[in-house]
Amino acid sequence: MEGAGATLIETPSGKGAGEENFPVGSFLIRRDLRPHVHAFYRFARQADDIADNPNLAPEDKIRRLDRMGEVLEGAPGDDAPSAAAMRRSLAETGVTAAHCHDILTAFRLDATKRRYRDWDDLMEYCRYSAAPVGRQLLDLHRESRDTWGPSDALCNALQVLNHLQDCGDDYRRLDRVYIPYPRVEELNLPALTPALRRVVDELLDRTDALIATARELPLLVRAPGLRCESAVIVQLAARLSALLRRGDPLASRVALRKRDFAGALLGGVWRGLAA
Predict the structure, then answer these.
(1) Which of 10, 67, 86, 117 is the most exposed place for a label (fewest CB within 10 A)?
(2) Domain span at 103
(3) Given a cut of 70, is residue 220 above it in pLDDT?
């Protein structure tokens, strides 16, 4: 796969930053740092697409993700362009590659692990799949590591909310279930059963506790733009959690609406500037 004209190992799904629940490198972020935020997003997006590709065998997914790690560390070849771009970004900014490798660890898990036994097991996954996203952004802004705790809480909350949004689709398309629940076949039903509804609400209780911790983040971040963006994302997480309380992710897509983004932007920027 190495050398000029090598076959790409990446398998783009076509999903972009505009489909996420949170802003990615928005106008609130310093202009000179936005390209590096986008480089990290593309790297994570490509790794995610490999892990979620239903046409690849688990061992092929692992091989491709390993190759992304090799290119990230300087291996020659043009078969993983997002990893090569990420390597250049890290060299320019001096940010550690550890967060990128953590992301690859998460997607290796996605390639092989299909069930999670309890909340702690799910949080261990989020340690690799979600927390590194916030840490990367904080390190890019040279923020104190005192920010990592509330940032991890926010990113983990967003990850769980995303799992709840996609619980039916993940089961039907990938046979992957992040919800700790033994009767996974109920995820193929047109609506939540009472027992599954209780599990979802319990997960939302724990997620709301993470969001409460995350509210400390804007108070700790020094960079004004990042402080405002973090406040906006906290608002979005709280709004999505409330929507999932009222909605049924098996019956219909539960997602943030334009007015949710607008409200979170106004309230988050105000809180960020006031912090």
Answers:
(1) 117
(2) 30-112
(3) yes
